[in-house]
Amino acid sequence: MNLSKKTFIYSSILSGIILSLILVYFIIMLPSLYIDYQGKSNYQAIKGIHEEYIRNKNYDTIHSPNPTGTLSVRVPSSGSDIYASNIFGTAKITIKDNELNSLLDDLRYYSENIEELKDNDDYFERLFDTLKKSFNQEVFLKDLPVNFEFIESDNKNVFNEGTSKMNIVSDDTVIYEFNSFDGINYFTAYFATTIDKGEIIVSLLSVMTPKIEDIRDIVLQSLPMIIAVLILILLVFTYFFSRKIIIPIKKLANHAEFIKENNINEALPIEIKGEDEIALLGDTLNELYSKLNESFIKLEEKNRLLVAENKRQDIFLRASSHQLKTPVAAALLLVEGMIDEVGKFKNTKEYLPKVKEQIISIRKIIDEILNLNNKDVNKKIINIKVLIDEILFEHEIGIKEKLINVNFEGKDTLLETDYHLIYKIIDNLIINAISYTNKNNEIRITLSENKLKIINYGAHIDEELLPNIFDAFVSSNSETRGRGLGLYIAYYYSNLLGYKIEISNISNGVKAIVYFNN
After folding, report:
1. By C-alpha distance, which of 310, 323, 269, 274 is closest to 293?
2. In whole angstroms, what separates CA 70 from the centre of its chain?
3. 87 vs 1, residue with greater confidence
4. Which residues pair with 311 in a beta bridge?
5. Up-side HSE of residue 30: CA atoms within 13 Å toward CB?
6. For the chain, how long is the longest CA-to-CA vector?
7. What gap in Å lies between CA 431 and CA 364, rounded to an integer?
8. CA distance 52 to 42
9. Model confidence over 189-235: pLDDT tens digits?
10. 111 phi and psi, to 5 degrees?
11. 434 closest CA partner among 466, 459, 452
12. Between residues 284 and 380, which one has the greater pLDDT?
């Protein structure tokens, strides 16, 4: 199973769990939370109504959740008037009955001395008896022009008493909460009472409390639509979520496949947006590919150098083998002639030195070949001027034989380099200059801080040889049959030390320059 399907399945399972939790919340917790919220809301409503009425003594700025079931009653600190207000207006009730006025005064007294009410338990009984007597049928018939007939119901009280709770808001305000049930609906009545500057203020609010069963039925009826919408949302979310994860991974996989099928240096860095783990993986792979590319380029360069070196060694060995044939053949010819005492070769004293010369020539070629295989560089501070003086002294005999005038100009120049390699470079260039300078000519050597210039006058290099002048066994000395290794060795050692050599023809000679800072 590929990662896309796995991600989709895992996301679907997780979405199903979330969906189940949401449904449990809707069916079980939401109704009870709503009931609790509604009860707290009703409590805050009666508290706000009561406090607002105390301030303004009217309903002009009061908003009630049940306007027709809300009432506030204010009993002044004296007199026979009582005020009742709700959203529809304010009514003043004047008590004309003396006994009721007396009970009203008692109510004012006990509201200030509530502790004495405990010793007078029959107060409320007398209060209700007086009210019943004052509001009997005869009173209404006598004082009002309307005939009231009261018909008693067989069901004296259809309400069953539920729970009640007393909430003390402050020292002078109490809210009484009473719950009842009529067999079908639940009701909650709130009575807020405050004694403010001798006045008794009572606010009433009656609301119907919603039942959990009613809310649950509504939720259950809405479940099909809720489930369908949630599933659709979850599926869309899961699809895009899985694509968001899979697409970067596919890009990384395709990029890796491209690199596998093609040259690594042809691959551009892959861009993964974001700051998550996949983006970090993309950056890491880019860094890895970059390092691999650098290593690949270095390896190609080393391979190229290795191929060139192998080719050089192959050519060098072939050429050196060919070069060695000449002195070996000459030496063998001389030795065989002396052994057989053929003609002039009978004079061994004359031809043995010639054999020795050929053997010495062979030894020099072998020594130079062996030295070329030594690539160790041991640098130290060397005075180049002193080194040139030593080399000129060693070749003093050859210089005097050809009556060459050597003009050396330069000051002490210190250079951190390998003594044996720099010696070979300068020695070969000076030997070349001496070999190719005719008698009674001049060699001019100029040393500065960054370069060494050697000019041998009266010499010339064939133009067709100049491009290959640094190749092994290339020589323009046809008379002395030079070995052609001098410039090759100087060029090879210069590369090891990081120097640069230039050789060119000038109007009346040949100029060789060694640049110490390449």
Report:
1. 269
2. 63
3. 87
4. none
5. 14
6. 187
7. 14
8. 15
9. 888 888 887 788 888 888 777 766 666 666 666 677 777 777 777 77
10. -70, -25
11. 459
12. 380
CA atoms within 13 A on the CB side of 222: 12
Query: Vertex 198, ends 193 and 199: CA angle to 5°?
Result: 50
Give CA–CA dist 380/32, Å, rounded. Answer: 93
Q: Interior CA angle at 65 toward 59 and 66, to 5°?
A: 80
What is the CA 192 to chain-centroid distance, rounded?
62
Are 342 and 286 contacting, i.e. CB atoms less than 8 angstroms apart?
no
Q: Which two tokens stand for residue 345?
A: 């070769």
Q: Which amino acid is at 404?
A: I
Q: What is the DSSP string of 295-308?
A: HHHHHHHHHHHHHH
Length of the chain equals 518
pTM exceeds cut of 0.90: no
Element spanning 130, H or E:
helix 123-134
Q: What domains lie within the chain, and their CATH numbers?
A: 6-215 (no CATH), 377-515 (3.30.565.10)
Per DSSP bridges, beta strands 81-86 and 160-168 are: unpaired
Q: What pLDDT, in 10s, does the model give residues 6-59?
A: 666 767 777 777 777 777 777 777 777 777 777 788 888 888 888 888 888 888
Of 201, 210, 213, the C-alpha closest to 172 is: 201
CA distance 97 to 70: 27
**Helices (DSSP H) in 262-276: which residue ranges?**
none
Q: Which of 429, 458, 454, 461 is nearest to 511 (CA)?
A: 454
CA angle 441, 445, 472 (to 5 degrees): 85
Q: Which two tokens stand for residue 510?
A: 């040949």
SS3 category, 63: coil
Task: For residue 161, give the DSSP letter.
Answer: E
DSSP state of 274: S
Q: Which helix (H) or strand (E) holds 179?
A: strand 173-181
Contact status, residue 484 vs residue 475, Cβ threshold 8 Å: yes
pLDDT exceeds cutoff 90 at 287: no
Q: Which residues are paired to 70 by β-bridges?
A: 205
Residue labelled with tokens 């399907």: 5
CA-wise closest residue to 426 among 400, 478, 460, 387: 387
Two tokens, residue 51? 């406090």
pLDDT score, position 482: 45
- The radius of gyration computed from the CA coordinates of the chain, to the nearest angstrom, equals 61
pLDDT in tens, 228-275: 777 777 777 777 777 777 777 777 777 777 777 776 655 666 666 666
